[in-house]
Write a structure and sequence with these properties.
Helices cover 32% and strands 23% of the residues. The strands form 2 sheets. The chain has a 6-stranded parallel sheet, sandwiched between helices. The chain has a 6-stranded parallel sheet with strand order 6-11-10-7-8-9, sandwiched between helices. Helix 1 links the parallel strand 1 and strand 2. The N and C termini lie close together (7 Å).
Amino acid sequence: MPEVRVLILGGTGEARAVARLLDDAGVDFVTSLAGRVANPRLPVGEVRVGGFGGVDGLADWIAANGITTVLDATHPFATRITPNAVAAATRAGVRYLRLARPPWTPAAADRWAVVSDIRAAAGAVADRGGRIFLTTGRQDVAAFADVSDAWFLIRVVDEPDGPLPPRSRVLRSRGPYDIAGERALLREHAIDVLVTKNSGGEMTSAKLRAAAELGIEVVVVERPAEPEGIDRAATPEEALAILVRDATATG
């Protein structure tokens, strides 16, 4: 394979998987993590942690480090990095490829209420009340802080940012999760409503299947829009195939 160097914008299971594939294929790469999780799962290979300083900083880093492809495998709800990465790759004159897992889609047994953003999810919870299982991540918990007519079980990896709802319990936990465990958790806490982002993937999808089995309503925050006209891969294997094809075509 001709000389390539890939910058993986990571932090997801897909990023770790594609790092393993690139490593096995002998492709030179470095993974960048934002540093928002205290003890992240690290991929194989070289890792850098921290921001780049916006579009200009990322473009400069790409040029200074001989990057030929930016492989954006960040979370579907990491709204700032993807447009910045597209702009920086364009400015640096290198390939950009978005690796994003497909979103979840409701099955016949699912009771989904789809909302546009976290604020809308908080409004939906305030209207419903009851016992809420909140799984949207620590940075979004503050949006629910004014909801007083509900009790929250808040599952996060690290402690939440900002204020908590007045009636709540924080459960620190990291996936993947299985259906039996999720079913037991929902029953133990008598959950009425599950709140989640439409992150996609298998690591946390068991909660949706467990909720469907128990007839629990799910408030689903739909994904934010991403830049149009960008190249995409749905799996790490597809991303590797695209990189190999490109390298072969230019070699």
